[in-house]
From TrEMBL:
Keywords: Plant defense. Pfam families: NB-ARC. It comes from Panicum virgatum. Gene3D superfamilies: Helical domain of apoptotic protease-activating factors, P-loop containing nucleotide triphosphate hydrolases. Transmembrane segments: none annotated. This is NB-ARC domain-containing protein.
């Protein structure tokens, strides 16, 4: 979800809350924190925005994804590759790869983003490869699972978009970035005929960026009339705005 509305504010809030000592001074000690929320909220987008903002402060940087069916040997090799460390292809044992990673990172200031963790046991195995050290490190995880977030350090609960940012994202995707008359970002429907149905659609999306982008993509291909937009609105499940349960996303 590139160019997600409001991501800069969330990024800066996250950095100031968890990764600085005040006055934008980076923390020197190690820090592990998890971005938590249900599917489609933009956890990966936020993690990447934080990563790109602060990675220059570190000696070693890596961004890896886990998913529900992780291949940890491949993940550990991916970490070493991102760090620019040559890998002996004969090292196939997970415990050996963990040992190599720990030794390599022990005296380096590093940042690692571990995206999309589903299982506590998987997180614990990954954490074994990322050592505490005296020069400082940052580990950021993303997850939909509350227990995993708690195990992976302090949790930052990602919230849905505000009504204002939801409108900006929705109308940007359909009508473009700027109001042609004022050159300002569109914050309300530029077509009065579509204002009511737009409001209903946004309520159904409930501030979830992925839902807003999906609906906007569908509508961008439709004629600009409210009958066609209401067809799209009625085709989507009526419970979206009330369904915030992780297991159902």
């Amino acid at each position: 979800m590139k160019e997600l509305v409001g991501i800069e504010e969330a990024r800066d809030e996250f950095i100031n809350k968890f990764l600085t000592q005040g006055n934008n001074v980076p923390m020197k000690q190690g820090k592990t924190v998890s971005i938590f929320g249900f599917g489609g909220l933009g956890k990966t987008t936020l993690a990447n925005a934080v990563y790109e903002k602060i990675r220059a402060q570190f000696d070693c940087c890596a961004f890896v994804s886990v998913s529900q069916t992780p291949d940890l040997k491949r993940l550990f090799k991916g970490l070493l590759n991102d760090f620019g460390e040559s890998i002996n292809e004969e090292i196939l044992d997970e415990s050996r790869l963990i040992k190599v990673l720990r030794e390599f990172l022990q005296d380096k200031r590093y940042i690692v983003v571990v995206d999309d963790i589903w299982d506590i046991s998987v997180w614990k195995r990954i954490r074994c490869a990322l050592p505490d050290n005296d020069v400082g490190y940052t580990i950021i995880t993303t997850t939909r699972i509350a227990d995993v977030a708690e195990q992976a350090g302090g949790a930052y609960k990602l919230k849905p978009l505000s009504s204002n940012n939801s409108r900006k994202l929705f109308f940007r995707r359909i009508f473009g970035n700027k109001n042609k008359d004022s050159n300002k970002e569109i914050e309300k429907c530029p077509d009065d005929e579509l204002a009511e149905v737009s409001g209903r659609i946004l309520k159904k999306c409930a501030g979830v960026p992925l839902a807003i982008i999906t609906m906007a993509s569908l509508l961008a291909c439709k004629a600009r009339n409210k009958l066609e937009w209401y067809e799209v609105y009625n085709s989507v499940g009526t419970g979206m705005e009330n369904n915030m349960d992780v297991e159902n996303m």
